[in-house]
Write a structure and sequence with these properties.
Structural class: alpha+beta
Number of helices: 4
Order of helices and strands: HEHHEEH
Distance between the termini: 30 Å
Strand content: 5-15%
Largest sheet: 3 strands, antiparallel
Strand order of the largest sheet: 1-3-2
Shape: globular
CATH topology: Arc Repressor Mutant, subunit A
Number of strands: 3
């Protein structure tokens, strides 16, 4: 039973992408790598889920996308946070804090 679950918690991928892009603009592979690095390998982002989420965030105008050269001189779509995306990140972060503290209280509850 050494197989640890590295799935992103349902409903948090958008928030994690927005937070990652608040640090700096990056391409999809960079976003996935940064989430894995910052979470110390606890979370791995499924490429299909990431692409779908990026499209959804772009349609919501929470991120912008533009083609640029990578550090390896390849063309890639780079994503950046919009002003609306920054506000959405604040909303999602506050909601996550509220929910995670409620879970912590439930886990600490004693009979």
């Amino acid at each position: 039973m050494d197989d640890k679950n590295t799935d992103i918690i349902q409903g948090t991928l958008d928030m994690l992408i927005l937070k990652t892009l608040s640090l700096e603009p990056m391409h999809a592979f960079g976003i996935a790598r940064r989430v894995e690095q910052i979470s110390r390998g606890v979370f791995k982002v499924n490429p299909g889920s990431l692409l779908t989420a990026l499209q959804r965030l772009d349609r919501s105008a929470w991120i912008d996308a533009a083609w640029r050269q990578t550090e390896n001189s390849r063309r890639a779509k780079f994503y950046s946070l919009t002003r609306a995306g920054k506000k959405q990140l604040e909303v999602e972060t506050a909601d996550w804090a509220r929910r995670s503290s409620a879970i912590a209280r439930l886990l600490k509850a004693e009979a």
